[in-house]
Every structure is written in C-alpha cells, then in structure tokens.
Amino acid sequence: MKKLMAILGMVALSASSFTAHAQDPKLSDRLERASIVMDEIMQTPDKGVPQSILAGAHCVVVVPSYKKGAFVVGAQYGQGVATCRTPHGWSAPVFVQLAGGSFGFQIGGQATDLVLLAMNEHGLQDMLHSKFKLGGDASVAAGPVGRNAAADTDITLRAEFLTYSRARGIFAGIDLSGVVLSQNSDDTRIEYGSDVPYEGVLTGHVPAPGNSVHFVHTVAKYFVVSKDNQ
C-alpha cells in the first residue's frame, strides 16, 4: 500500500510539473508566425537579407504583425521573439516587445512584419538589457536588401542594429529610431515555467522548449555562416 501511494505521489508530482510548464498556445502561435515570416522573407527571390549580413548577425528579433496606427498622434506596438548566436548554435528564444510613438498630422494604419538584427557585440549587450531605445541607446540603420546587395556602407558598419520591414508583400529596410525594445518578462516566464535570466537564455545556457525548436531551426537555416568564417 505504501509503495502504491508513493507511485501515485510521483505521478501526481510529474503531472503538476507538466502543467506548470505547459506551453501557452498564444506563445506557440507567435513563435510559429515568426518562423513563417523568416521563411517568406528569405524565400523571396533576390529580395532577402544579404549573405554578408546573415553571416555577421549576432542576434535576430522577429516581430510578426507590428501594428502602427495614427490619427494625429502615431502609436506603434508589437510583440516578438529573439534568439542570439552562441558557440553551439542559436539560443533558445526570449520574448520581447517594441513600443514607440510619434506626433504629427497623420491618418492611417497598417500591420507590418519586422526583423531586427544585432550586428556586433554592442548590439548583443543591448539585447541583454531590460530596455533600450533604438537610435538613442543603440545605433540603428535601415538594412540593405537583396541577396547581392552591398552591405559595407559606413552606416551599416557602424550600426548596432539593422532593421527590416515587410508590408503588403514589399520587403525593405526601415528606420525605427525612437522605438523602444524591451524584455517581455511575463511571456518569457510563462514559456519557461519560471523566471529565467535573459542572459542565461540568449547565451545558450537554457534548452529550447519544444514549441520554439522550429523557430530556432528556421533562423539557423538562413543564418548559417558564423562571424568567424566570414
């Protein structure tokens, strides 16, 4: 009887642990949409991110359906996922959010897919902070587009982040100066079942949850050349 009770207790404990770490459908959907965005952008003939940029990127942020609406006062907001290059491949993802605003006479609205690339060690260090402003705390530039596009301009070489957008099927570099990128600690906690440090995840010390493996593999498929092999 005692043995049976012990077994039942272990089963109950395992069930409770599974429940605590159950993967949220909302976050799984965001990860899957981020994978689709990367696939669709990179599979567009001669319109993707140049190979030299892919080779040098330290981190990748994908924000599916970044929303921008305006009526006199502009507002921008989006939820995304990020992964960074490690000595052993690309890290498990963390969740991030973009927020910003602008003032002026503007009417309209659109949803845009965004891709942000941290291009050097400074950009990587910015990613480990809880919040920073593009164009303020971190230098930013619109990224070059096209498989064979030149990526050696001064602004590209100096920028910590290169930014891209896709709206209505058109893929191009975009200026995101003034937009704030911050950690989404709540969603990251839900994904991993506990508080995990962003630095630990993005430096490769935390395994990727099952629902994020496709996203990590998708990034790895395109960002295949390490910086050391350029």
Average pLDDT confidence is 79
Largest sheet: 8 strands, mixed
What class, by secondary structure content?
A: alpha+beta
Q: Quaternary arrangement of the chains shown?
A: single chain
Beta fraction: 25-35%
Shape: globular
Provide the succession of SSEs: HHHEEEHEEHEEEHHH
Helix content: 25-40%
How many structural domains?
A: 1
Distance between the termini: 65 Å
Radius of gyration: 19 Å
List segments where confidence is low: pLDDT < 50 over at least 5 consecutive residues.
Answer: 1-20, 103-107, 226-230
Q: Count the beta strands.
A: 8
What's the tally of helices?
8
Write up what this structure looks like.
The chain is α+β, with helices and mostly antiparallel strands and 230 residues long. The protein has one domain. The protein is 34% helix and 33% strand. It has eight helices and eight strands. Strands 1, 2, 3, 4, 5, 6, 7 and 8 form an eight-stranded mixed sheet that branches.
Characterize this entry briefly.
The protein is α+β, with helices and mostly antiparallel strands and 230 residues long.
Characteristic terms for this protein:
single chain, 230 residues, 8 strands, 34% helix, disordered N terminus, disordered C terminus
